[in-house]
Design brief:
The protein has 236 residues and is of the alpha+beta class. It contains seven helices and eleven strands. The protein has two domains: 107 residues; 128 residues, Nuclear Transport Factor 2, Chain: A (Roll). The strands form three sheets. The chain has a six-stranded mixed sheet with strand order 7-6-11-10-9-8. A three-stranded antiparallel sheet has the order 1-4-5, with no helix packed on it. Helix 1 packs antiparallel against helix 2 and helix 3 packs antiparallel against helix 4. The longest helix is centred in the first third of the chain and has 15 residues. The termini are far apart.
């Protein structure tokens, strides 16, 4: 679980209670690396980088200003694995959540990274039943094929038909996607720009998500992705 924990220690001094630094728990990230290895992905270097990070911070990574160099090394290892075609989507989702702890707004709420990673695994494998469990009842999606907002049910039916015909093979984002996660109360917003794996340098692709937490569950409210090349900028 990617969690931030703050503990107040009461001291006898005149200054009163003192707060220990917040720390990021790496349990979910560790499990994501193990799960990728079980699926056959070559993530040995990623595991070594994670072990180095945990060795330095056995009680969790303290959130104190700039991220530690071991975290940057782990990010490099994950990017290298993705560049070689390894499926590290789940790892990247949890790693993004860890890195978000060092940005304004802090890490996502408990379980958010896990739910999001599971949703995208269902999306890439065409498991529409699992997708429906995460999407809100009024979920809407905007993508480059439909050209307009599409109800989640219609979108899932389209994916399900393609999956049944063994024609559902969406390309994943290549390594290096610029993604930002922001949370505010029961809402989380994800926005980013990246490229499809194998698409070549033909322009940026954008994506965004709005998540809402209700009754203790994170649900995907809206999803946008447009994988058409970005318009060429006019020459000055």
């Amino acid at each position: 679980m990617v969690a931030v924990v703050a503990v107040l220690l009461v001291t006898a001094g005149a200054d009163g209670p003192k707060a220990e630094p917040k720390v990021v728990d790496l349990a979910d990230l560790r499990e994501a690396v193990a799960a990728a290895a079980r699926r056959g992905a070559n993530v040995a270097r990623v595991g070594e980088a994670l072990a180095a990070l945990e060795k330095r911070f056995p009680n969790g990574v303290p959130v104190e200003g700039v991220p530690p160099p071991e975290l940057a090394a782990l990010e490099d290892a994950v990017a290298a694995a993705a560049a070689k075609g390894e499926n590290v989507d789940g790892i990247r989702t949890h790693l993004k959540a860890v890195g978000a702890a060092f940005k304004p707004g802090g890490v996502p709420d408990l379980g958010f990274a896990r739910v999001r990673a599971a949703y995208y695994e269902a999306f890439y494998t065409g498991d529409t039943a699992a997708m429906a469990k995460v999407e809100a009842d009024n979920f809407m999606v905007f993508h480059d094929r439909a050209g307009d907002m599409q109800p989640g049910k219609a979108w899932r039916e389209e994916i399900g038909n393609l999956a049944a015909a063994k024609q559902w093979a969406p390309r994943r984002l290549a390594a290096g996607a610029d993604e930002e996660i922001r949370t505010a109360g029961p809402t989380a917003v994800v926005a980013g720009v990246g490229r499809l794996a194998g698409a070549g340098p033909d322009g940026a692709r954008s994506f965004s998500e709005v998540w809402v937490k209700a009754d203790g569950r994170w649900r995907l409210q809206t999803l946008h992705y447009d994988f058409r090349p970005a318009p060429a900028q006019p020459k000055k």
